[in-house]
């Protein structure tokens, strides 16, 4: 198994951040063949999604999360920015992990699929992502 932790700067706004390039670079440096890529976010307020980016789906995901989990004062978890409690509930809907098949050193994603970090927590501008390749 080959594993590496990277840092992603998400800044002070909600974001769906495409991790395709980082995953490709990791697989190349790992000398990956066939196997599985596991992506893990060790944070209580971030998740990972396999989604199309660049055509509006990433913004639609953030809109859907805002509709489902409003950033108001209904949340019992109250530290941080107003509505921050929603960020702690979000990983139940967008989990902090994803596993992608790898064939010939390349992620076996569909044409429009990307591996994306979903971060609604505006209080934490830097995220860690753990990439692990398990040979098949």
Please provide a brief summary of the model.
The protein is an alpha+beta fold and 136 residues long. It contains 3 helices and 8 strands; from the N terminus they run ββαββααββββ. β5 and β6 form a beta hairpin.
**Structure annotation, total helices:** 3
pLDDT < 50 stretches? none
The end-to-end span amounts to 10 Å
Derived structural class: alpha+beta
Give me the Rg, rounded.
Answer: 15 Å
Pfam families: YjbQ (PF01894)
InterPro entries: UPF0047_YjbQ-like, YjbQ-like_sf
Protein name: YjbQ family protein
Organism: Saccharopolyspora aridisoli
What are the salient characteristics of this protein?
Jelly Rolls, alpha+beta, 8 strands, 136 residues, UPF0047_YjbQ-like, YjbQ-like_sf, 3 helices, 5-stranded antiparallel sheet, YjbQ family protein, 3-stranded antiparallel sheet
Structure description:
It contains three helices and eight strands; from the N terminus they run ββαββααββββ. Strand 5 and strand 6 form a beta hairpin. The protein is 20% helix and 36% strand. The strands form two sheets. A five-stranded antiparallel beta sheet has the order 1-8-3-5-6, covered by helices on one side. The protein has a three-stranded antiparallel beta sheet with strand order 2-7-4. The longest helix is centred in the middle third of the chain and has 12 residues, at 57-68. Belongs to the UPF0047 family. This is YjbQ family protein. InterPro entries: UPF0047_YjbQ-like, YjbQ-like_sf. Pfam families: YjbQ.
């Amino acid at each position: 198994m080959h594993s590496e932790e990277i840092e992603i700067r998400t800044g002070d706004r909600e974001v769906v951040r495409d991790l395709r390039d980082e995953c490709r670079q990791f697989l190349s440096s790992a000398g990956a063949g066939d196997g599985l890529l596991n992506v893990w976010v060790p944070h209580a307020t971030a998740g990972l999604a396999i989604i199309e980016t660049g055509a509006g789906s990433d913004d639609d995901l953030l809109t859907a999360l805002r509709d489902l989990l409003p950033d108001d004062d209904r949340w019992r978890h109250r530290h941080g920015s107003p509505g921050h409690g929603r960020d702690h509930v979000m990983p139940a809907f967008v989990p902090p992990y994803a596993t992608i098949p790898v064939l010939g050193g390349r992620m076996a994603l569909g044409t429009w699929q990307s591996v994306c970090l979903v971060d609604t927590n505006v209080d934490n501008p830097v995220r860690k992502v753990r990439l692990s390749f398990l040979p098949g």
